[in-house]
Amino acid sequence: MIAQVGYFILLLSFGLALYGAAAAGYGGWRGRPALVESGRRAMLLTFPMLTAASLVLIYLLVSGSFQVEYVASVTSRSMPNYLKVTALWGGQAGSLLFWSWLMAAFATAASARRWDRDRELLPWVILVTMGTLAFFLSLVVFFENPFLRLWQTAGGQQVTALFQPRGTAPLVPFDGNGLNPLLRHPGMIIHPPMLYLGFVAFVIPFAFAIAALVTRRSDDRWIRITRRWTLFAWLFLSLGLILGMRWAYDVLGWGGYWGWDPVEVAALLPWLVGTPFLHSVIVQEKRGMLKQWNMVLIILTYSSVILATFLTRSGVFSSVHAFAQSAIGPMFFAFIGLTFAASLGLLISRWDGLRSENRLDSMFSREALFLLQNLIFMGIYIVCLWGILFPLISELFTGQKVTVGPPFYERATGPLWGMLLLLMGVAPLSVYGRASWQRLGTALWKPAAASLLVLAALLMGGMRNPAALLAGWLGGLVLAVTVYEFWRGARARHQRHGENFFVALGRLAARNRRRYGGYIIHIGVVLMAIGIIGIEIFQTETQGQLAVGEQLTLGRYVVTYDGLTQFDDPNERDRNVARAVVSVYRDGRPLGELYPRRDFYYAAQQSMTIPGVRSSLEDDLYVLLVDWEQIAQQGATFKIYHNPLVNYVWLGGLVFIFGTLVAAWPEREPGRERRRAPTRAAVVEA
Amino acid sequence: MVEKPPDPAEAEQPAARPRRWGVILVWALLLGLLAVLGLGLVRTQQGPVGIGATVPDFSLTTFAGETVDIRDLRGQVVVVNFWASWCKPCEQEAAELEQAYQLYKDQGVAFLGVDYVDTDREAMAYLEKFGITYPNGPDLGTRISQAFRIRGVPETYLIGPDGRLVVIKIGPYQSLDEIVRQIETARAAGSAGG
Amino acid sequence: MRRGLLTMMGVGLLALAVASVAAAQQEVPTDDQVNAIAKQLYCPVCENVPLDVCPTQACQQWRDTIREKLGAGWTEAQIQQYFVDQYGARVLATPPATGLNWLVYLLPPLAFAGGAYLLLRAVRAWRSPGTASAPPVSPAASDDLYVEQLERELRERT
Q: pLDDT-derived band of residue C16, with 50, 70 and 90 as boundaries?
């Protein structure tokens, strides 16, 4: 009964979204504010409606209503309640509903602003957001309905339908299949919603961009309105990617965190265009340049979001991430074709109206360096897009499957990432407008000299790997430049206003959060780069079969095998655990025990290799239980990875997120701030 | 979306001719991308070779070193079974398949076992364990399985005497009866069709 | 094994046979030697997961095959070729550079070069003929400029 109610709410929301898009679009086109207003109200209704629909599904999940097909397929009795709630996005149908709910929430939040200055943008923002929402809801309503119930025919066949088909009896399975064991990890529970948050939030800047295009507004209003949305989207996208990496590291058991799986790469695509977008909008705000290019970037970002969602869900790729194959592929394909072509056509028709207001004065100006950064990001984007598309192309033309794996991506993008590091070191010291290489050089030489010290230290430390040396030097450069930027900004204020140095530092960052937040992000990126270099270049591994008491040596580490127990988990009946105990020694000193294990889930017939990891800032010792003798449990095979510096990836991730928060933190209304600031400064000085 | 969007170049320069080419190029790239996605999607949605379709030609080099060409088997019903030694469900049907082969081998029904992504030693051990005597060989380069677009093992394809596919069985056979029924269907289809 | 030799038939056959007899006396290859090769191979059963860490039975068998071949004295290249012959080019981590596969390596650098060219042209077009580059500045003056600019930027924020 309640499932039908849920479906009915969904159907209504779908109608509302369609009506909202149509009314706003038509009203905007014909200049009828009343119609637009009616569309806006429909949009505002979608959020409470979809909240209700999601709550209904959550209720069904938590109450264990296994007569509902979706509930039976993603939950089971033994799952704790919080996992049952997260099963909302554990399957195709539920995650589409979740997507739609986020879309409605963001559309509502974005339209909650005061519209007085930008009234003409409103209809088109509604059209884009509600159009996207209507599309996702159509998938839920027509193809992937989470509220379908299970029925049994007289012949014993199982069918799904919303209402009882003739000649069938209700079917209530005693237990459900349960969530895919791979997904029962804290990182995996938060990873998808974070990615979705990022994906969906990027629709908002896109909607405003399209609105600006339609209304032929060539100023930067759309960028200013959506600046925080962009940062918000980018924050969650980054967070989602980092959590996904952590999940892979903890659960997939292959010693790394990024396997260049096609679906991973697809999720990276929006980030690869969102990041240059974030930078190049600053140029438009400051200099009125790159208007066309920013439009290209935001359209590409939105398209990449849709493309990534399509690739994950249509079954075009087979991958650990892929949802089961489903019927939504053709629908999705049509939507992709429509939106891509429409935005491209619109952009081309408005192209000439988006001329630059300023000239590029110098190759060494900030805007020129941003352009270079954009080019490099586009290079990485093309490598990644090509890498995931090529196997499809190859299969179509030659009938042969090929693998485009990590070596391709690493070799093709490695130098580009290095160039980005270099730019990250140089660009913050450049100025807008009339720059010159002398001026840049003057600013750069001190931090550059400091970075050479890093290089010298690495050389003296005995490092000879050229790639690592180069990356270390570049990382040192970025750090030195960033610290230098903070320092000289604070010193300038210190001298000008006589503020205490640290007060000056704090105030500096507070007054230009986006810039200094950005610098913090740069520091985070350098830390991550250190970790990536550590694991990419210096990872070592060994594997061996051990009898109890025997040991395996890897570098300075020795691992001895103490024993293994195998048992059914008393708390989670469905799970059989083989848990080994190993002792770790370094340079002969005991460091404690690790417990690598292999979990086997009976229902899913799936096993998971959970590593035993000893973490320190210096390195990780990552021990995997590969195999063991079932009967005697005397012998077991272990694989050990030594992952130097890998924790800098996570540390850098935290710094990265912190920096984004600093940059995105709301500021006071700019107008008031500007007038008041000098007075207050004067008071403090007095 | 487009792989190489127009850089600001065309933008700022009012030259009309390169502009037009740029626009054409961008549309072409977009269409190309859509074509690849669309065809890829069609391929995934398609599933295995359809019933009634003519089976792709292939030849199988058996473990015994003989070469069997599917074209030489025209006029017979051919049972093509995909299996692997690491595949547990395959073991359920292995003995029954051999029994069916014994029943039908003199009645114009050929059996072929295609060993998917497997290693020779284990494959031979498997064949020996289940006493399988019909021709079996490895799927070199996974060409045959790709041509049939199988999704996994075991899968069985029954080809009529005219070379058209009659029955597809995904997953293991539950009984000898089931195999016999399907073979009879295939033979009936063959005699009805011509 | 028997067919493995068949595929390798030709010039190398005799040498190989001799080598494998010689190698038979060698010790069994270690897991690390096996993994070093397995790391670069991909098994179709677990797509996109390198062979050395794939836990399925099929991949276990593949690793045993590598061990067997190594024990028989095969080189890494020979083993890779054997797997390509047996299971197709998809076992390799990157497509072999033949035929259509050239595209995979050619397109990204070409696109990047094209992008760089377009950028360069755009920059040229942007820079007006009359624009002189900024006058050289002395270090002291540049510091002043910096302070001034920082202040201006802080004032002009948003």
A: very low
Domain count across chain B? 2
Instruction: Give CA angle at A262 (A261, A265), nearest 5°.
Output: 90
Which residues have C-beta within 8 Å of that of residue A221, sequence separation ≥ 6?
A117, A118, A121, A212
Query: Phi and psi (nearest 5°) for C94?
Result: -130, 150
User: Which chain A residues are closer than 8 Å to C123 by Cβ?
Assistant: 360, 363, 368, 371
Please report whether residue B1 resides in a domain. yes
> Who's near A534: CB < 8 A, 6+ residues apart?
A619, A643, A644, A645, A646, A648
The verdict on B71 and B127 lying in the same domain is yes
C56 touches chain B (CB under 8 A): yes
CA angle B131, B136, B137 (to 5 degrees): 140
- Whether residue A351 contacts residue A297, with contact meaning beta carbons closer than 8 Å, is answered with no
- Above 70 in pLDDT, residue C129? no
**Any A CB within 8 A of C134 CB:** yes
B177: domain CATH number?
3.40.30.10
- Residue A393 distance to chain B (closest CA, Å): 6
B150 in the same domain as B100: yes
Same domain assignment for residues B95 and B42: no
pLDDT digits (tens, 9 = 90+) for B32-80: 999 988 888 887 776 667 777 888 888 898 998 889 998 888 888 899 9
Q: Is residue B168 located within the same domain as residue B142?
A: yes
CA distance A371 to A365: 10
Residues 267-286 (A) with a CB less than 8 A from some CB of C: none
Query: Does residue B145 sit in the same domain as residue B99?
Result: yes
Q: What would the pLDDT profile of B109-165 be if each residue is shown by its tens digit?
A: 999 999 998 888 889 999 999 999 999 999 888 888 888 878 778 889 999 888 888
Has residue B38 been placed in a domain? Answer: yes
Q: Of the candidates A54, A155, A62, A52, which has an alpha carbon nearest to the alpha carbon of residue A99?
A: A54
Which of chain C's residues have a Cβ under 8 Å away from the Cβ of B83?
Answer: none
Q: Which residues contact C147 (CB under 8 A, 6 or more apart)?
A: A492, A495, A496
In this prediction the pTM is 0.87
CB contacts of A316 in chain B (<8 Å) are: 37, 40-41, 44
State whether B68 and B111 are in the same domain: yes
Average pLDDT, integer, range A198-215: 93
Whether residues B74 and B160 fall in one domain = yes
- Angle, vertex CA C26, rays to CA C20 and CA C32, nearest 5: 100
Interface contact B26-A330, CB threshold 8 A: no
B73 and B112 co-located in one domain: yes
B107 interface with C at CB cutoff 8 Å: no
User: Which residues on chain A place their C-beta less than 8 Å from a C-beta of chain B?
Assistant: 290, 292-293, 296, 299-300, 303-304, 307, 310, 314-316, 325, 329-330, 333, 336-337, 340-341, 343-344, 348, 351, 354-356, 371, 375, 378, 382, 385-386, 389, 392-393, 395-396, 399-401
Domain containing B10 equals 1-46
| Residue B53 in domain | no
CB-CB neighbours of B11 under 10 Å: 23
The 3-state secondary structure of C95-156, one letter per residue: CCCCHHHHHHHHHHHHHHHHHHHHHHHHHHHHCCCCCCCCCCCCHHHHHHHHHHHHHHHHHH
Whether B51 maps to a domain, the answer reads no
Each as own residue / partner, the long-range contacts of residues A134-137 (CB below 8 Å, 24 or more positions apart, any chain) are A134/A14, A134/A17, A134/A18, A134/A21, A135/A331, A135/A335, A136/A96, A136/A99, A136/A100, A136/A103, A137/A10, A137/A13, A137/A14, A137/A17, A137/A100
**DSSP secondary structure string for all residues of A226-258:** HHHHHHHHHHHHHHHHHHHHHHIIIII-SS-S-
